[in-house]
Structures are given as C-alpha cells and as structure tokens.
Amino acid sequence: MGIDTPDLMEYFLDFSVVVTGFSRFDLLGTGQADCYYQTVEEKIGKPILKELLDTFHGLELTAQKKYQPSILTEGLHSEILASGKLGPIARNIIKLWYTATWYELPDQSGKDFGVTLVDNSTCIPSPQAYPEGLVWRAVGVNPPGAKAPGYGTWSEEPSVKLTTTNRTQQMQSELEYNKELVRRAYIDGMNNRDLSVIDEVFAPDYVVYYPGFEPIKVEGRDQAKKSIQAFLDAFPDIVFEIVEQIAEGDKVATRWIGTGTNTGVFKDFPEQGSPPIPATGRPVRFSATDIYQIVDKKIKTEWNTLETMEILHQLGIVSAPG
After folding, report:
1. What is the pLDDT of residues 171-215, one digit of tens each?
2. What is the end-to-end Cα distance of the chain in Å, rounded?
3. CA distance to 92, 98, 240, per residue, from 95 (Å)
4. What is the CA radius of gyration of the chain?
5. Which of 82, 176, 229, 277 has its CA 20 to 30 A from that of 297?
6. Cβ neighbours, 10 Å, residue 125
7. At 258, phi and psi to the nearest 5?
8. CA-CA-CA-CA torsion for 254, 257, 261, 265, nearest 10 degrees?
C-alpha cells in the first residue's frame, strides 16, 4: 500500500521513532523534525524517500494487523537495513537524528537510485541542530560548551525575542503535540493493547459524549478503559488506523478506521448495562471522526461520532435502515 505525499512527514516520524529508539515526543521536542525531513528529501529526492517510507509503512501495517511486532523488527532488518539501496539512507537518518549531521552516501547509492545525486556532501542541516543531537541525551551529558544557567538568570531579558515566527513555530509544535497525544491513545494504547497509556494521555476528569437523542456520556479514565477493553474483548484482532488529523487551538479532529473480527462477547454495547452480544464471527469495518479537547497536555473531552447502529448491522443484530 502506497502512502500519499502529504503523509510522508508523518511516516518519516514513525520510521524515526522505530530506528532511533526515542519517542515521537522526544523527536518533535528537538525542534528539528521539519528540518531533517527537508534535508533527507533534498539530498536523495522525494521518490526514493517515498520508497523507503512505503516499505516501512507496509511492514508496520502487516505487523499491526497480525499483532506480531516481530514482523516489523525482522522486516526492518531484512528489507531496509540489509538493502543496498535503502540501507545507507536508513542508517544516515539514524545518524542525522543522533549527531545532527547528514553524511555523504556511498558512491554506489546514486546508481542504485537511478539518478545523479545533486549534493552528496556531508553537512549539518542547521546551526540549532548540533545541541539537539540525540547522542547527548543517550550518553547523559550536555553538548560541549553548554552550561547550566547561573543564579539570577531568570531575571535577565531573553537573548532571543519571541517574534511572530517564534510564536508561530511554538503554536505549531503544540498542535503537533496534541495530535500525537490522540495518536498515542489509538496506536500505543488500543493497537498495542496497553491501557496504561490511557492513564498517560487522558485527564483524570476525562469525559466522552456519544451521539443520540439522549447523548451517552462516559466519565473518568477507569470507565474509558472499561469501554475500550469491551471493544478489545469483542474484537481481539481489531486494528485502528489514523486516516487524518486536523488541529486548531485546543481541539484535534481525528478521522479513524477500525477493522476486526467479532470472536468475543461484546459487553455493554451500545451503552453501559446493555445485554451481552454473543460472538458472531463476523468481520466489521467502521469509522468515525471524533473531536478531542486537550487541556494541560491531556485529553480532557471527546465528542465521539461512532455510528453504533452500523456496527450492530454488520454484526447481524439489527436490519439495515429502510
């Protein structure tokens, strides 16, 4: 499955998380993600970068659908790192994040790409990149020349003014953080069956509203985890895919697709106290576009648009409308 050009930056980050061992939050926190992406694209060209990310994305989807993380790990080694074409690029991306340096690729690389590399020289992408290299965090030291602020520095006027550009970058970083927070709930929490993630990304007073003439409301993290667990029990192989996200202010709109097979008892659906639905063995595919409110770096409120009747219809519990 190929990925669309607008998604390349997202999958560049996903790939970088896996190969560096650092979280998406850590990578975005360097402030260099856009710069590094642009550097890689300029050095090797968009087609070969897309091929690398297409290959990674295919491995990632297969691992999620089969719930076998080893597929991604083994495929990363055999199909990417061991590849004469993709391997040098992948290793260069790792080195770029750790050392803030893009290194000259082997001479053979241009022939493998089928193009002549315009600029195959070693470079540091930006003056700000060097102190943000992950190597300093990995070894637990500060970059040479760095020192902790002295007494009273809090009272000194900042040496860098918060210009309009700075504010725009800060706002953009916050929006990316908010989107990643929601992604974590789906990918790290539900797809990986790790509900401890819910405690990390949801606020203690989290509340979700479902549609209907008398809106169903779920309050608190414990109740949210109970509702999620009901889905995971009913559809043990369920996989959620984030299709699109739009962030503005403190809100994140997320369009997602869930695919799975009903091989377990479905409890408390469509609402708390509903009679259990025996396993039907039927496959289902459903989607929704939900809105999340982020307050103090936690998901506080959710407006869920899941069509419960559509799921019940696919399970054969209710007839199609009309």
Report:
1. 677 888 899 999 999 999 999 999 999 999 999 999 988 876 455
2. 36
3. 5, 5, 31
4. 23
5. 229
6. 20
7. -115, 135
8. 30
Banded model confidence at residue 322, pLDDT cuts 50, 70, 90: low
Cβ neighbours of 315 (radius 10 Å): 20
The identity of residue 278, as a single letter, is P
Residue 169's pLDDT is 58
5 is written with which tokens? 């050009």
pTM of the model: 0.50
Quick count: other Cβ atoms within 10 Å of Cβ 14? 17
CB atoms within 10 A of CB 206: 23
* Alpha-carbon dihedral sign for residues 126, 132, 138, 143: positive
pLDDT, mean of residues 271-276: 78
Q: Which residues of 45-65 are buried (b: 16+ CB within 10 A; e: fewer)?
A: beebbbbbbebbbebbeebbb
Whole-angstrom Cα distance, residue 310 to residue 312?
5
Q: Report the phi/psi class of residue 156: left, alpha or beta, with left for phi > 0 and alpha for psi in -120 to 50.
A: beta
How far is residue 113's CA from residue 119's CA, in Å, rounded to a whole number? 14
CB 81 within 8 A of CB 89: no
What integer pLDDT is reported at residue 155 of this predicted model? 47
CA quadruple 254, 255, 261, 266: dihedral, nearest 10: 50
Asked if the model's pLDDT at residue 240 lies above 90, the reply is yes
> How does residue 255 score in pLDDT terms, banded at 50, 70 and 90?
very high
Residues 6+ apart with CB under 8 A from 217: 207, 208, 209, 210
d(CA 58, CA 67): 14
Residues 217/253/239/275 CA torsion (nearest 10 deg):
20
